[in-house]
Amino acid sequence: YKNGLVHVKNPHLDSMDEDVLYHFNLGTKTHNLPVMFGDIKFVCVGGSSNRMKAFAQLMHKELGLEGDGKDLKDICAGTDRYSMYKAGPVLSISHGMGVPSISIMLHELIKLLHHAECRDVTIIRIGTSGGIDPGTVVITDIAVDSFFKAQFEQVILDNIVVRSTELDKDLVEELLNCSKEIHDFPTLIGHTMCTYDFYEGQGRLDGALCSFSNEKKLEYLKRAYDAGVRNIEMESTVFAAICGLCGLKGRISCHRPFPFHVCSCISSHFLISSTYGFGQLWDLYNVKTKNVFQT
Ligand code: R2B
Asked: What percent of the chain has pLDDT over 70?
């Protein structure tokens, strides 16, 4: 991609007088986006607002920025759809749960980075997920759908368009190398399966509806494992597809805290441990990419 710029692939945008980023409560006429965001090099996204605020505060501290970072303001305070915090060149944004929620956020984020003329931006999803072995971090090489296919099916009007879900390979290796330098930080590279539902879609037996047996669930999870799947969440395929098309280096690292059958409350339980873990990994990554912060 030309000059590392973030791409929008929408010919209609050029003829619009104003671009309103509705769910961020930002816009090209109301805000000076290049001044507010022009220095962004890393965007970290995760499900919950509180977690992404804690992550931004941690980045503030790790990067040695002025002040204690406790009073970081939510840039999207004018709406309660998403929260956004900035710590130097790092933007930390919540995306809610599931493909539609992260998809809306990504459209507006990519337009924001485009209007702000950001260059060489890396985007990392640092979310929670369900896993087979407890206590590991999975760095996603390929995001797959519920049929273990590396694709995302986008419905456009009444057509289905199939998009690729490959992620940046160099970045995956780079992060794995960083993780090796941290004690007690079991990390692996694997496929991440993205589902449209938390309960039946992920083989849980404890939803309001369940039409399969425990044996059937285990048989499905074994097939997923054999296909290379190491964790399950609800955003990775659309994340990989949209970022890939728009020239953002995309990566997903998910904390995989519990076996499938007991992971129904991972989001709230793992706020602190996953933030802490990713912070350590980030710190190392930051040291290794010092030049990024000098530009
Ligand atoms: C992981 O955790 C959430 C469900 O609890 C969902 O956003 C996901 O992918």
From this structure: 83
